[in-house]
Amino acid sequence: MVLETEILIGMEALSVHTFPPMDVDARISKEWRRRMLFMLFMISGIGAWFLYDGYVVWPTEGARYVEFAEIRDGLLESGKANDEESPEIQLAWERHAQELGYKRDIPKERTDSSIREQRVIGWGMIAGATAFALWIAWNHKLRVRAEGDVVIGTSGQRVELDSIIAIDRKKWEKKGIAYAIYEADGKERRLCLDDHKFAGCEAIILEAERRIEARQEA
Fold this sequence. Notes:
The protein is of the alpha+beta class.
């Protein structure tokens, strides 16, 4: 009886020494934030490009095309040009463009429907960028914590470190993601520990692995 008590006391002391209470607050990493902001910039830029085309470039080019069509049709009807590829049409347009300060290139036809489509796509991209920005802001409120012997996930689930029976690192090398497999209510569950997104999760993973190894050795 005395021997058992001494062993228990010794194990308890060893446990306290080996596994001190944790204090980890893993928040959004700078790398994840930079990547998301880059994607936000890309989506916003593409949307702005479509809107600029839809409200500025294409309507202006459409107006120039109307002028070009008048010159072309006039030359074709008068017989001064044989077809639309005739150099006479090109030369006539270049003279007209030079007089009005236009580009020398022959403008493309921009219909109302095509201009409207550019605007719809642009506003759709801007709406998507706005939703994406709100999603990024919402993610900045999330975090993974380890307080004492308890890990608290992003959705508030509480997992005892000693209830973790395995760490799944299949996605660790490529994505920096590991899953803590633990037991709760007689079932195996998984807690995502994403160190790429939440800087500091690796400390929780290493601590869980140390405890698993210590239990296996015992």
